[in-house]
Structure formats: C-alpha cells, structure tokens
Amino acid sequence: MKRSLLMLLAMTGLLHAGERQQLIVSVAADWNASSGLLQLFEKSSGKWLPVSPAWRVLYGRNGLAWGRGEMPAAPPSPDIPMKRERDKRAPAGLFRIGTIYTYDAMLPEGADYPFHTMTAADAWIDDPALPLYNRHVEVDPSNPPPWFASQRMRLDDPPHRWLIEIRHNADPPVPGAGSAIFFHIQRGPDARSAGCTVMPEGRIVEIVRWLRADANPRFVLLPRATYLAVWKKWGLPTPEAAAAVLGP
User: Fold this and answer.
1) CA–CA distance from 54 to each of 41, 95, 115, 159, 192 (Å)?
2) Distance, first Cα to last Cα, the chain
C-alpha cells in the first residue's frame, strides 16, 4: 500500500486497530493524580516495545476523567467522573492523534507528520453553545464572526508553539464533553494544565519528530490500576514492557 494512501487512512481512522504501529502511553497513580509518566512504544513482530525512556508529564490540575475516545463511552466504574468542559481534568482512554498545530512554518528536521501553521485566522471552539464546538476553524480575520475574539488560537503564548491534537470527543463532538485537548509545552516545572498533557518543549519536539501518520499513532492515558485491568483487552503493551511507565 502506498505511503500516501496509508497516511490518508490513518488520519481518517480507517486502519484496523491491529495496524497501529505507534503508541504513546501515559500512566497516572490514580484518578486524582495531576502528574504521571509517559513513554513511546512501537510495534515489532506483533509486540509493543518501548523506544524512549519514561518521562514526567503533567495533567489537568484536578486529575483525570473518562474521555470520549475509541473505547467504551461509559467509565469502568460509576464513581469515575466523565470528562466535562472546564472541569480541569485530562481525558483518560485511548485516542487518535490528530494534526500538529504550530507557530512555525515548518516542522523540526526529521519530522514527517500532517501539521498546520497557525495564523490570525485560526480558532478552536471551546464554547458548547457554538455549532462548531471542539473543531478547528479558519475565519476571515478582516471580518471575523462575533465569537472569534474568545475562541481564537493564541499566537503570543510560548507554551502553545507546539500543539499535538489528542482527538478526545472528536468523532463526533458532544457539546459540553470537553474540547481542545493537546500535548503542549508546560508553563513551569509544576504548572498543571486545564486538561491537556504537558511537558518540557524538548519532549514535545521529540514526539513531533517521532510521529508518523502511516503508523496510525494512538495515545492512551489511564490510572495504573485501570491500565492493569484493561491492557490485554485493549491491545496495550504488557505490564512487563510498560514497567518503566507503570512504576513500582
């Protein structure tokens, strides 16, 4: 199959789950944890193998909540919160990786992944009352709609230089179920986010260089106990392969 067709299928989600070749795994201690570990995996001969060290990342300041991704819409337990707009929780589950958004005209050397250079025309809708909720849109900046000022993507905010889209609540979006979830640069060593997974810029750039659309990349974020309960059913790395990110 030609690379261009593989890339198209990967971005539209039409590749079979068994053909995922890249996986970003992040594990938190529990549902209220606002930090955890993240590691990159690639599939070789049908097995997930780590291809990076595990490094520390930060989540939403209130911890995690069950997201809308590729696995069951309902959380595994009724006491687990569902992700909601402005709850300051990072969505947990298994998610497609979408577009990279950047201030730069080009990706770093060695990168090869669909990206979009942000301009004054770009917005990401996080208002559940608007019809294009949780969508990237471009407008005519000389004649913007009334909502644009509050929804525009920031062009003067260093932590948003690299935004890697985590496709939570994306296919299709449900109003109020959470929006604008990305990997991006953290604001400080212990500065939690409003719901994104954040880390130092060097680590973001490492992911940007590593991602390949024809590898059908996914992101999984779970508390440790939940990961251990679902890894086999979800086709995730074994606890032995994921020992570094699972922790003691």
Assistant:
1) 10, 19, 25, 21, 19
2) 42
